């Protein structure tokens, strides 16, 4: 898929919406899990969740930069 076409932007927006929905669902479950177990477990899960979100955001930013510079899109790295 070519960079910055409508299909590319559509796939990017869909991925962002799915990520936001997953984060919202997990954030709803974290206080419930904290009340069942020790509260520190909920805090640890929250930190892990935001670390995963940060990694995904960095991946998307670098894939957009590589797309802008002409080396590819949101596909994983390929070894030849």
Report on this structure.
Helices cover 78% and strands 0% of the residues. The protein has 2 helices and no strands. The protein has helices at residues 6-36, 39-69.
Query: Helicity range of the residues?
Result: over 70%
- SSE sequence, one letter per element: HH
Q: Structural class of the secondary structure composition?
A: mainly alpha
| Beta-strand segment tally | 0
Tally of structural domains: 1
- Show unreliable segments: none
The number of helical elements comes to 2
Radius of gyration: 17 Å
Shape: elongated
Could you tell me the strand content as a percent range?
Answer: under 5%
**Average predicted local confidence, pLDDT:** 78
Instruction: Please give the largest β-sheet.
Output: none
Distance between the first and last residues' Cα: 20 Å
Please summarize what this structure is.
The chain has 80 residues and is an all-alpha fold.
Task: Record keyword descriptors for this entry.
80 residues, mainly alpha, 78% helix
Topology:
Blueprint: H1 6-36, H2 39-69
Helix pairs in contact: 1-2
């Amino acid at each position: 898929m070519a960079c910055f076409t409508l299909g590319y932007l559509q796939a990017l927006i869909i991925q962002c919406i799915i990520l936001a929905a997953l984060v919202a669902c997990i954030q709803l479950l974290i206080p419930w899990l904290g009340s069942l177990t020790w509260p520190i477990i909920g805090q640890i899960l929250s930190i892990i969740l935001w670390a995963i979100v940060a990694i995904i955001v960095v991946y998307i930013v670098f894939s957009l930069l590589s797309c802008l510079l002409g080396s590819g899109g949101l596909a994983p790295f390929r070894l030849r």
